[in-house]
């Protein structure tokens, strides 16, 4: 039995040592924001008058949004099986591939940002440690994220930067470039945080540069020079977390 324990510990140490610096920091950030509470919880919140229900684990996910418009009660569901839309509980089978893609991206985007940094260990994610930096008098690890084409979705060529606190491993800022809907670049600064069910949910100030073709790597310099414009506020409301049975 003693040798079995030593063997297991050795394998664990080898596994930890084989991780890159970026992977280790992201692991610590995920733990600081909620860790195992993410895959063991069903999360609901309202964002811009739309109700979202989110579940995500390492192997499966289901994102739901519900709202009312001129057609009636709309329910969009995005999961491992694909995307479906119902209106007044009737499935819509006439959606074009273009519309399905647009709706899927919209639902996925809200879920992705609401769950950060959980999701940064998805198989398609490529993490690079840029180094340490200082922003607003605080020290941060700067992590760059890109995506593999295989499994990276339609937005695989997007790029992200994450500022993760050197002391507390909280993600206080992020910046990203995107290519859909005409493309652009954004930087987000945490405005406040709410903890529910052991998970840290963050609201953001959404900032943009004058030139939408600005490289994402330039966003910190522009932020420090006051060259970014406040575009919107990203606020999650009425957050509820329900623990799932294990």
TrEMBL record:
Name the UniProt record assigns to this protein: Deoxyribose-phosphate aldolase
A Pfam family the protein falls into: DUF6503
InterPro entries associated with the record: DUF6503
Provenance organism: Algoriphagus ornithinivorans
């Amino acid at each position: 039995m003693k040798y079995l324990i030593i063997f297991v510990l050795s394998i664990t140490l080898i596994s930890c040592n084989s991780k890159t610096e970026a992977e280790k920091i992201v692991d610590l950030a995920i733990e600081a924001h909620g860790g195992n509470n993410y895959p063991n919880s069903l999360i609901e919140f309202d964002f811009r008058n739309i109700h979202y229900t989110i579940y995500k684990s390492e192997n499966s996910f289901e994102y739901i949004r519900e709202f009312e418009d001129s057609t009636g009660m709309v329910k969009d569901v995005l999961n491992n099986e694909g995307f479906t839309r119902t209106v007044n509980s009737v499935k819509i089978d006439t959606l074009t591939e273009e519309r399905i893609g647009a709706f899927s991206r919209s639902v996925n985007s809200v879920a992705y940002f609401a769950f950060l940094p959980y999701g940064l260990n998805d198989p398609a994610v490529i993490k690079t440690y840029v180094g340490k930096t200082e922003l607003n008098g605080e020290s941060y690890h700067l992590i760059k994220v890109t995506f593999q084409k295989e499994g990276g979705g339609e937005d695989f060529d997007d790029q992200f930067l994450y500022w993760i606190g050197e002391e507390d491993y909280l993600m206080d800022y992020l910046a990203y470039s995107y290519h859909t809907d005409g493309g652009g670049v954004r930087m987000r600064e945490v405005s406040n945080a709410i903890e529910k069910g052991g998970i840290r949910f963050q609201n953001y100030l959404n900032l943009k540069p004058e030139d939408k073709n600005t490289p994402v790597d330039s966003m910190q310099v522009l932020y420090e020079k006051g060259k970014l414009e406040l575009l919107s506020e990203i606020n999650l409301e009425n957050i509820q977390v329900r623990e799932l049975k294990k």
